[in-house]
Amino acid sequence: MDRPAPGRHDERFETRRPRRFLPNLLVPIDLRDGEPTPPSLFALAEGRRVAHVAGVTVYAIAMSDRDLDGAVVAQLGRAGADKVLLCEGAALGAPPLDATHGPALLAAVERISPLLVLFPAGGAGLALGPTLAARLGAAFAGLADIEVATSGPLPEGVGRVYLRRWRAGRSAYRRLDPVEIERPVVAILGAGVLDRPVGGEGIDVEVIACAPPKESPVTELASEPDPAAQVPTSRVLVIVDPSLGAEARSRLAADAPEGVAVVDREAAAAAIAASAPEIVIVVGDADLPSLGTPRGRVGAILLGDATTPPARGIDVLWRVPATLAGEALWSEIAGALTAVASRRSP
Amino acid sequence: MTTTGALNLLVCLRAPPPQVEGDALGRADALALAHAFALAGDRHTVTALLGGISVEEGPLRVALAAGADRAVRVAADDLTGADFHTIGQVLAIAIRRIGGDLVLTGVRSDDEGLGAAPAAIARHLGAPFIPCVEQIALAPGETRAVEVVTRGGGRLRRLRAKLPAVLSVAAGPAASATRRKRAGDAPAIEVIPLSDPESTVVRRRTELLGRLEPASRGVETVTSAAALVAALDRR
């Protein structure tokens, strides 16, 4: 990514570099009913944002049991992909697992030797990201933001990509520069929504035929729609203390706009663990789960003793006397949530 | 697996952060241990495993007191400074020696909060890895498989995994669950030295090569829900 000149991918430059350091950025796309999820398009757009400055080529990797629809390819192009790699195989239409999808992803990754692999929020990152990093000997950033450094000993207009993630306990950020640590970085990005096209529709699709594993150690016995499916891909996640009662959660969820998920902290623990929201709001207490990225924002509505110190990592705090817990308070919060900016994919 | 068909369920615990005083078990680790106890009943064995130094044995003592059959510490003096590749390799070496069938971990069990160590363990064991599991049961009619419930791709799925397997646990039984009362005193914590000539651990600090930056963000106090949302959604 130390490029002599800014701009897009340069084949002449590529042939002069060791294969391991090809300036490629990969985004594995999560498809739901054949459509890319909003965080997938956002991840591509984030890749495109840094590609202009750091000179990387953005690849979208889709894994499916059938050919990609032309409209989907165009959508990936508008979101910022330079090229699409389609891993096509019989078992790849199911939700991703390392046992079924890991070999196909590795085949794609070995073909283009990426410096960065950015999984979208709420998708295959948890299942495939750590195992891919383990196989590549790469660094792994669980929930990260991608940034570009343009200062330092760099020509004007040239930047270097790095990733930022929280350490456990939100005590500090960790900054990972793949050039500095001399190995690729695999990361899961925070959720977001692409609100305007950033690329063109005319992009190439390369198909990799993937044979299913001969004997998978993991087999599916049953599958049904996940009632909490929208939680991991939500841009805004409201986490409600279960001690406030089911009525509080129901009331807050009733008018929540698109992209806002309201969940019970205990009942939705697994969905919360798979989430990477841009904005987190905890309601009831400060038992803050370890999620979100450094660029994300955390709010807390704390009920009770005003002397209780807020948990580390809270950006905005509203203290409310416990005696006010009830319908009027839930209505006020629900009303405020409707003001969360609505963003739709183009 | 033993000759009687009993399984050895291994629970990987993380060493407590330096600021934690006394014996404590992380929330995610407690959940993994509760799953192991629920699965094991009286038939199968639960072994708690931790890599670290002797002063970090607190979680192992908690696991023994809660009903674990064995507690094993891999003697490693600087795992807090190692990356997930090394942690996975160290624990996999120990698991091979102990002979684990099912490995359970918290969903984010390493000190950096990445949730990547279980994948590294699976890679070094050559076992399948399933993250964010919510329910686990022994597969009916089979002694070498489990059935798990997990979410992904908008689906709630029930999967069968052959053993050995590595699962990270995101939800499940009450984390405070304990097992039956043990007759007699708890067994001593066993120690596996890393100096075992059969084991070669390549120590790397992939993550720690990254720079650390202070998280210097103040707290903004507001007086209404609308102000809170506006402050958070500011762009």
Descriptive notes:
The complex is a heterodimer of chains A (346) and B (235). With 346 residues, chain A is an alpha/beta fold. Chain A folds into two domains: 11-209, HUPs (Rossmann fold, 3-Layer(aba) Sandwich); 236-337, 3-Layer(aba) Sandwich (Rossmann fold). Chain A has helices at residues 11-14, 38-54, 70-79, 98-112, 125-136, 178-181, 246-254, 269-273, 327-337; strands at residues 24-29, 31-32, 35-36, 57-64, 83-88, 116-119, 139-149, 160-166, 172-176, 185-189, 204-209, 218-225, 236-240, 260-264, 279-284, 297-303, 316-320. In chain A, a hairpin with a 5-residue loop joins β8 (160-166) and β9 (172-176). In chain A, α4 (98-112) packs across α5 (125-136) and α7 packs parallel to α9. In chain B, α3 (84-98) crosses α4 (117-125). Chain B has one domain: Rossmann fold (3-Layer(aba) Sandwich). Chain B has five helices and eleven strands, in the order βαβαβαβαβββββββα. In chain B, α1 links the parallel β1 and β2 (45-52). Chain B has a nine-stranded mixed sheet with strand order 7-6-5-8-4-1-2-3-9, with helices on both faces. The chains are: A alpha/beta (346), B alpha/beta (235). At the A-B interface, α5, β7, β9, β12 and α8 of A face α3, α4, β5, β6 and β7 of B.
